[in-house]
Specification:
about 130 residues, mainly alpha
Length: about 130
């Protein structure tokens, strides 16, 4: 007797899980470091370089998670008008996470592109 084939996860559930993982990483890892880099009193000056390096590393992981989320979204395909409620919720959650990703990406790229601007950003940006 052969074993059952490996069960597959429905595409809407997969998208929910991927979007949640990305949202969690952005909210719990990237944004706190970003705030520290942007806030003048959050870090002693000698730790700013390390914070930039750490931001760069966690941003690479965030980009990997974003690719996984995008892949899960493309697997979901176009939503028919009569799609299941869970599929609709997964699509809305994906849209929300994609928006958050865009906001964070603009801030991170601005800082990583020109670290000397960070001092200016540290005094002008608040999230």
């Amino acid at each position: 007797m052969s074993p059952d084939p490996k069960p597959t996860v429905p595409t809407d559930v997969c998208l929910l899980l991927r979007a949640h993982a990305e949202q969690h990483w952005l909210s719990r890892e990237v944004i706190p470091v970003l705030r520290q880099v942007e806030t003048p009193s959050a870090l002693p000056e000698e730790q700013v370089g390390a914070a930039f390096a750490y931001l760069e590393v966690i941003w690479i992981e965030a980009q990997k998670l974003a690719q996984e989320t995008e892949s899960a979204h493309s697997d979901l395909g176009e939503l028919p008008a009569n799609s299941a409620p869970l599929t609709q919720k997964a699509s809305r959650y994906y849209s929300s996470v994609k928006h958050l990703r865009g906001v964070v990406a603009r801030r991170v790229s601005r800082i990583l592109r020109n670290p000397s601007e960070a001092q200016v950003l540290r005094t002008t940006l608040q999230f």
